[in-house]
Automatic annotation (TrEMBL):
Primary location recorded for the protein, binned into one broad class: cytoplasm
Protein's UniProt name: Histidine--tRNA ligase
PANTHER family tied to this protein: HISTIDINE--TRNA LIGASE, MITOCHONDRIAL-RELATED (PTHR43707:SF1), HISTIDYL-TRNA SYNTHETASE (PTHR43707)
GO molecular function: histidine-tRNA ligase activity
Phylogenetic placement of the source organism: Bacteria, Pseudomonadati, Pseudomonadota, Betaproteobacteria, Burkholderiales
Subunit structure: Homodimer.
Gene3D superfamilies on file: Anticodon-binding domain (3.40.50.800), Bira Bifunctional Protein, Domain 2 (3.30.930.10)
Keywords on record: Aminoacyl-tRNA synthetase, ATP-binding, Cytoplasm, Ligase, Nucleotide-binding, Protein biosynthesis
Family listed: Belongs to the class-II aminoacyl-tRNA synthetase family.
Residues of the Aminoacyl-transfer RNA synthetases class-II family profile domain: 29-324
UniProt-listed InterPro entries: aa-tRNA-synth_II (IPR006195), aa-tRNA-synth_II/BPL/LPL (IPR045864), Anticodon-bd (IPR004154), Anticodon-bd_dom_sf (IPR036621), His-tRNA-ligase (IPR015807), HisRS-like_core (IPR041715), HisRS/HisZ (IPR004516), HisRS_anticodon (IPR033656)
Compartment(s) where it occurs, according to its Swiss-Prot or TrEMBL record: Cytoplasm
Protein EC: 6.1.1.21
Length: 415
């Protein structure tokens, strides 16, 4: 026998019985994005490797360990499956000059790839919902996106989601903080693990994000970036806090929050929630005012976030959030009347109804079992008598009521 082929490790199938919750989620976030004036943009899954080296940062876990990179066998180009969505969107904005008419609000959704250790809610191919506001300088748009996320949680029925915010300042402030961090970590060199020692002089800010329990108390005592912020960065952060307070949103300032991508500045934020006994981040984002220049564009401010959809799905399943079942309005059961059954189904679809027309033969008894299993509200039954009179028997499946014979000309109105 031929060996059974299975999916690549860490890359999962979305099965039909799981798709209803995904469709509901996607419909929800699309609708909220539209309410806030954000428009869809799509960038390729494959981008030049250098795009992510320059944007994310060479001394990051993503670039050092997690990217799926390869050489094009035709021309030798170094290419990478995108590990996140923001860099590709900025590349597109620069390449096609789509900010010439002024600032833009955009959103995207799709697969991203990271060669991580697969675990529950974290896969090597996973999906993100991504929102970007390009060309806006003030904290008002930072707050807008956080408020937008609060609306999404409300629409999804999630109540135990908490907001953490921080400011990581601008480049000059981070340089001052960097020297203080290095001095602190060097004074505690005996506590540093291998990753921390490797990053001590190349990217000490990343050490603050360590998950190593043995380093936690030392990291907690490290100098805080908030203490070295200049007037402009403090004003931006104060403006964000004021706007969130005025919007009635609670938040916690987390001075260790730095995010895992080097392009951030000033505002950074995460929404966290308990999932399967652990507190996990389901959305993270922030401001990246220098990214356009890093990628060869003109100085342009930006702010955005990425949401890990698989983790949101885990949370929704855990809290059993209300989810509309994507069931048909009607199931057409018939004996030896495929043409008439199809005509009836098409008429109802013309009227905007979702209809499944039975295929594959079988008795009325077996067809009615399938009609009930489909979740349809109504069974439309067509036998020889119905076909000859151009009518159907309409039978309710989800509520009390009598079945009735009805002309196909009146069927859509009856439903």
């Amino acid at each position: 026998m031929l060996q059974k082929i299975q999916a690549v490790k860490g890359m999962n199938d979305l099965l039909p019985e799981e798709s209803g919750r995904w469709e509901w989620f996607e419909d929800t976030v699309r609708d909220v994005a539209r309410q806030y004036g954000y428009r869809l943009v799509r960038a390729p899954v494959v981008e030049p490797t250098n795009l992510f080296v320059r944007s994310i940062g060479e001394v990051t876990d993503i670039v050092e360990k997690e990217m799926y990179s390869f050489e094009d066998s035709l021309n030798g180009d170094k290419l990478t499956l995108r590990p996140e969505l923001t860099a590709g969107i900025i590349r597109s904005a620069i390449e096609h000059s789509w900010l010439h008419a002024g600032p833009q609000r955009v959103w995207a959704m799709g697969p991203v790839f990271r060669h991580e250790r697969p675990q529950k809610g974290r896969y090597r191919q996973f999906y993100q919902f991504d929102v970007e506001a390009l060309g806006f300088e003030g904290p008002d748009v930072d707050a807008e996106q956080i408020v937008m996320l609060a609306r999404i949680w409300k629409r999804l029925g999630l109540t135990d989601v908490e907001l953490e915010i921080n400011s990581i300042g601008d480049a000059a402030e981070r340089r001052v903080h960097r020297e203080k961090l290095i001095a602190h970590f060097e004074a505690h060199a005996d506590v540093l693990d291998e990753d921390a020692r490797r990053r001590l002089h190349s990217n000490p800010l990343r050490i603050l994000d360590t998950k190593n329990p043995a380093m936690q108390s030392m990291v907690e005592a490290a100098p805080k970036l908030l203490d070295v912020l200049g007037e402009a960065s403090l004003a931006h952060f104060d403006g964000l806090k004021r706007l969130l307070n005025e919007a009635g949103l609670g938040f916690r300032i987390n001075p260790r929050l730095v995010r895992g991508l080097d392009y951030y500045n000033r505002t950074v934020f995460e929404w966290v929630t308990p999932i399967d006994g652990r507190t996990l981040t389901i959305t993270g984002g922030g401001r990246y005012d220098g990214l356009f220049e890093q990628l060869g564009g003109k100085p342009t401010p930006g702010v955005g976030f990425g949401m890990g959809i698989e983790r949101v799905m885990l949370k929704l399943a855990e809290v059993a959030a209300a989810m509309p079942v994507h069931a048909p309005d009607a199931y057409v059961a018939h004996l030896d009347a495929p043409a008439f059954a199809n005509e009836v189904a098409e008429r109802l679809r013309d009227a905007g109804k979702a209809v499944v027309s039975h295929a594959g033969g079988g008795s009325f008894k077996s067809q009615m079992k399938k009609a009930d299993a489909s979740g349809a509200r109504w069974a439309i039954i067509i036998g020889e008598a119905e076909r000859d009179s151009r009518s159907v028997t309409l039978k309710p499946l989800r509520e009390e009521g009598q079945q009735q014979l009805i002309s196909i000309d009146q069927l859509a109105d009856a439903l």
